[in-house]
Specification:
The protein is α/β, with parallel strands linked by helices. The chain has a domain at about 1-80 and about 190-255: Rossmann fold (3-Layer(aba) Sandwich), CATH 3.40.50. It has 8 helices and 10 strands. The strands form 2 sheets. The chain has a 6-stranded mixed beta sheet with strand order 6-7-8-3-9-10, with helices on both faces. It has a 4-stranded antiparallel beta sheet with strand order 2-1-4-5, covered by helices on one side. Strand 1 (about 5-15) and strand 2 (about 20-30) form a beta hairpin. The longest helix is centred in the C-terminal third of the chain and has 18 residues, at about 170-185. The structure holds adenosine-5'-diphosphate and magnesium ion. Adenosine-5'-diphosphate binds near residues 14, 23, 44, 45 and 47.
C-alpha cells in the first residue's frame, strides 16, 4: 500500500494570547491508498478543524499535510467533501445538483451521465433523479450528497459526520449505502464520527482522538470482512472492538 495522505506535526491553535484555544494536535499520521479511516473522538476535540486543514480550507498553525505527493497550501478541488449539512441547491433536481459539481470544475456533465446513473443506483436513488431536494427525506438528501461528493471521481473523500442529523434507523441504512459506494468506487476516506459502532462498522482503521487538544491516541485496525452486514455486526468480534473502544473513552471520562 502507498501512503496517500501524510500528516506531519499538524496542529491548530485558534486566536492568540490569553484567548488562544489549542484545538488540535500535534499529530503525525499516514493514511494508505484505499483506506477507510475513521476519526473517532468527543465533541470539540478538533475533528472538523482537522478536516478543514486537510481540505486546505483552514490554515495550520504548524506542520505539513501532503495529499498524493502534493503539499496542501490552499483549497483543493480534486477531493470530495461532505459535512453534516448538505449543500444541495433547492432549484436543481438531484441529477442537476450532481451535475453542478462537474460544471463548477469545468467538466461537461453529459460526459458523466452514465456515471451519475451508477452512483444513484448504488444508493437506491435512481427513481428520484428528477426530483427536487424538498421532495426527498433527510436520508435521501444525504444519499444525493454522497453522489455529489463522488461524481468527479475523487481519490480522497472527507466526510465530516455526514449522518449526524439523521434518525437511528436511517443512519443504519445509509451506512450500508456508504459502504457499498466505498467498495465500488474505492476512494480513500477520512470519516469523522462520534459513534463507536459506526466507526467499527465502516472502517478499515479507527483513529482514537483524545479530548481537546485532539491527538491520535491509538490506531485500531478493524480486522473484519467487508461488506459488514447484519451477521458481521452481530458477531462477538464486532462487539469486542466496540467494547475495547468504549473502555478507552471511559478512561477519558467522556462516556
Ligand atoms: N473558528 C474558530 N475560532 C475559534 N475556536 C474555534 C474555531 N473553530 C473551532 N474552534 C474550537 O476548536 C475546538 C475544536 O473544534 P472542532 O474542530 O469543531 O471540534 P469537533 O469537530 O471535534 O467537534 C473547539 O474547542 C472549538 O470551540
Ligand atoms: Mg465537528
Amino acid at each position: 500500500m502507498n501512503p496517500l495522505i501524510e500528516l506531519t506535526d499538524v496542529a491548530k491553535t485558534f486566536g492568540q494570547g490569553a484567548d488562544a484555544v489549542h484545538a488540535f494536535g500535534p499529530v503525525d499520521l499516514t493514511i494508505d491508498d484505499g483506506d477507510f479511516i475513521s476519526f473517532l473522538g468527543p465533541s470539540g476535540c478538533g475533528k472538523s478543524t482537522l478536516m478543514l486543514m486537510v481540505a486546505g480550507l483552514l490554515e495550520r498553525t504548524s506542520g505539513q499535510i501532503v495529499l498524493g505527493g502534493q503539499p496542501v497550501d490552499g483549497p483543493r478541488t480534486d477531493i470530495g467533501i461532505m459535512f453534516q449539512d448538505n449543500t444541495l441547491v433547492p432549484w436543481r433536481t438531484v441529477r442537476g445538483n450532481i451535475e453542478l459539481q462537474l460544471e463548477m470544475r469545468g467538466i461537461d456533465p453529459t460526459s458523466a451521465a452514465d456515471r451519475i446513473t451508477v452512483l444513484l443506483q448504488s444508493v437506491h436513488l435512481q427513481d428520484f433523479a428528477d426530483r427536487f431536494p424538498y421532495e426527498l427525506s433527510g436520508g435521501m438528501q444525504q444519499r444525493a450528497a454522497f453522489c455529489q461528493a463522488m461524481v468527479h471521481d475523487p481519490q480522497i473523500m472527507l466526510l465530516d459526520e455526514p449522518l449526524g442529523k439523521l434518525d437511528a434507523m436511517t443512519r443504519e441504512q445509509i451506512r450500508t449505502d456508504l459502504q457499498t459506494l466505498w467498495m465500488q468506487q474505492k476512494p480513500t476516506v477520512i470519516f469523522v464520527t462520534h459513534s463507536i459502532e459506526e466507526a467499527v462498522q465502516l472502517s478499515s482503521r479507527v483513529a482514537i482522538i483524545t479530548p481537546r487538544p485532539g491527538r491520535v491516541e491509538k490506531i485500531i485496525p478493524i480486522d473484519l470482512p467487508f461488506p459488514r452486514d447484519f451477521e458481521v455486526k452481530n458477531s462477538p468480534e464486532f462487539a469486542s472492538y466496540v467494547r475495547d473502544i468504549q473502555e478507552i473513552f471511559r478512561g477519558y471520562g467522556v462516556i
